[in-house]
Amino acid sequence: MQRKLLIVEDEPDIAHLVQKHLQDAGYDADIASNGAAAMELFRKNSYQLVILDLMLPDTDGLTLCRKMRSAEEYVAILMLTAKSTELDRVLGLEMGADDYLTKPFSVPELMARIKALFRRIDALKEDTKGITEQASIERGGLYIDVNKRSVQVEGELVDLTAREFDLLLFFARHPGRVFSRIQLLDKVWGYNHDGYEHTVNSHINRLRSKIEQDPSEPQYVLTVWGVGYKFRDQRSDA
Amino acid sequence: MQRKLLIVEDEPDIAHLVQKHLQDAGYDADIASNGAAAMELFRKNSYQLVILDLMLPDTDGLTLCRKMRSAEEYVAILMLTAKSTELDRVLGLEMGADDYLTKPFSVPELMARIKALFRRIDALKEDTKGITEQASIERGGLYIDVNKRSVQVEGELVDLTAREFDLLLFFARHPGRVFSRIQLLDKVWGYNHDGYEHTVNSHINRLRSKIEQDPSEPQYVLTVWGVGYKFRDQRSDA
DNA sequence: CGTAATTATCACAAAACAATCACAACTGCA
DNA sequence: TGCAGTTGTGATTGTTTTGTGATAATTACG
Predict the structure, then answer these.
(1) What is the per-residue burial (b if ≥16 Cβ within 10 Å, else e) of B164-182?
(2) What's the mean pLDDT in A112-123?
(3) Which pLDDT does position B238 carry in this prediction?
């Protein structure tokens, strides 16, 4: 997954230095040199992390921080500040920063913090996942346990590889809906994956040989001729 | 239902900062600035969650934690610790904290964890299964004494290092569930630990050489290819 | 019924991943 | 401080999975 960050910093040298390192590390980073530009970019894009300098020409950083915090989606905020008094820290935390770094900082340290922040965000998402996504799915004679990554067909455990499981899980979460091979590559393999469409065929083939009673007459993953594949819908047939 | 929490923290700035945010979020939070006050409030009120600083002027946090744990009703405990080394110990000792956070922490993260904790508490109450905090765990030929931090395989005592024990305990508490190396680093090593994923491999390797009859054909800690590791589920095989 | 287009199957090499080992850095402790 | 044990990391080897090419089977449609 691509991680998008926004750097809010008025000193171009610093901003570009940071941007360059972030790009080297595989992140996608935009720059805003003042508060107004920052809010504009922020509203237009969805960032996962904002690196925010407290001292800005127009707005002050704390206001900006609060504004971003009030947005729908959660963004991590890493504050950069010149001073390092305890008051500053508490203030920054109160405003909702997730981490804090005082200038001058070292690039390796910044990168380490960013990495750590992303990790924490991911861990949190993992915790929160329970509400939106179900831990187990039952469809016909198929039972999928997401946490255990185990699959049972008619009560019998079958052993799937990581890809096979991900593929099956994706299908089972969208029963009845047809997906093209490209869509499957995007959703299951990942957006930046490049490869041949017929790779999907092979995986479907292998998956069927494991979960289907009679792979030539599939019950779960069906071929939609000229389009792609779909998971059989409970009621509607064919 | 009103959620009552107790903040045990000797730095007034932090205590009030947290209290303010909790109130904003609709919780009812009391503050205790030392261990004695904490126990007094704890006995008089019934809290659902205690946010507990490890470093306190009079008592140490662990003792407090144990005392609260021994109360009739179950309370969730979220620990705040200063360093990550200290945190290892806490986790290792399994004094019964439900979650932890290292200082300096960010308010959004704290709030997220509190929410997640309440969700877990609710889910637990539903189940009525009080099996979460057991002093000993038996799984197959494996016997783990949490308090003594000792492990027996087929009645034979084996000598594990701190990490090995923590790792095994974590697995044994979540049998069947698959964890990625990153998740293990987060849960066993600590959220802000940074290191290489393949460190986990080495520890699994060493752990296996101690507890497995035939490390090349593990009975307890199984590899899930392309994903991570899991503890063998009772019934399910392979 | 024949043909072109699409999908299924299979085998294999390459890539991704995991296990292992050795060693240096670190830890707690006497 | 020095020591013994523990832990993290690099390097190497071994294993499983996965993508891909080739080919066979199936489908749509004139």
Answers:
(1) bbbbbbbbbbebbbbbbbe
(2) 81
(3) 42
- Give residue A172's identity as a one-letter amino acid code: A
Task: Compute how many other C-beta atoms are within 10 angstroms of the C-beta atom of residue A111.
Answer: 16
For B139-231, give the CATH class: mainly alpha
Number of Cβ within 10 Å of residue B132's Cβ equals 12
Measured between CA atoms, the residue of chain A closest to residue B99 is A127
Q: Give the chain B residue nearest A111 (alpha carbons).
A: B194
**Alpha-carbon dihedral angle through residues A20, A22, A27, A28, given to the nearest 10 degrees:** -50
Residues of B with CB under 8 A from a CB of A: 13-14, 17, 20-21, 104-109, 112-113, 115-116, 119, 123, 176-178, 182-183, 186, 191-192, 194, 224-227, 230, 233, 236-238
CATH of domain B4-127: 3.40.50.2300
Footprint of strand D on the protein (CB under 7 A): A 161-164, 189, 193, 195-196, 198-199, 201-203, 216, 225-226; B 159, 161-164, 189, 195-196, 198-199, 202-203, 206, 225-226
Instruction: Say which residue, B102 or A88, is predicted with more confidence.
Output: B102
- Domains of chain A, by residue range, sit at 4-131, 136-231
Q: Which CATH architecture has domain A136-231?
A: Orthogonal Bundle (1.10)
DSSP string covering A44-61 = HS--SEEEEES--SSS-H
List, in order, residues 6 or more apart from B76 with CB less than 8 Å away.
B48, B49, B50, B98, B99, B117, B118, B120, B121
Q: Average pLDDT, stretch A126-148?
A: 83
CB distance B108–A120 less than 8 Å? no
DSSP state of B189: I
Where residue B80 falls among pLDDT bands split at 50, 70, 90?
Answer: confident
pLDDT band at A206 (very low <50, low <70, confident <90, very high): very high
Top-confidence residue, A186 or B97: A186
Rounded average pLDDT over B70-97: 65
User: Do residues B117 and B49 lie in contact, with contact meaning Cβ atoms separated by under 8 Å?
Assistant: yes
- For residues B80 and B66, give the distance between their C-alpha atoms in angstroms, rounded to a whole number: 15
Question: Which band of pLDDT confidence, cut at 50, 70 and 90, is reported for residue B129?
Answer: very low
* Average pLDDT over all residues of chain A: 85
What's the pLDDT score for residue B133? 54
Length of chain B: 238
Report the alpha-carbon distance of residue A80 to residue A154 in Å, rounded.
57
What pLDDT, in 10s, does the model give residues B157-204?
A: 999 999 999 999 999 989 999 999 999 998 888 877 888 999 999 999
Residue A91 sits at the vertex; the CA angle it makes with A46 and A42, to the nearest 5 degrees, is 15
pLDDT band at A172 (very low <50, low <70, confident <90, very high): very high
Assigned CATH class of A4-131: alpha beta
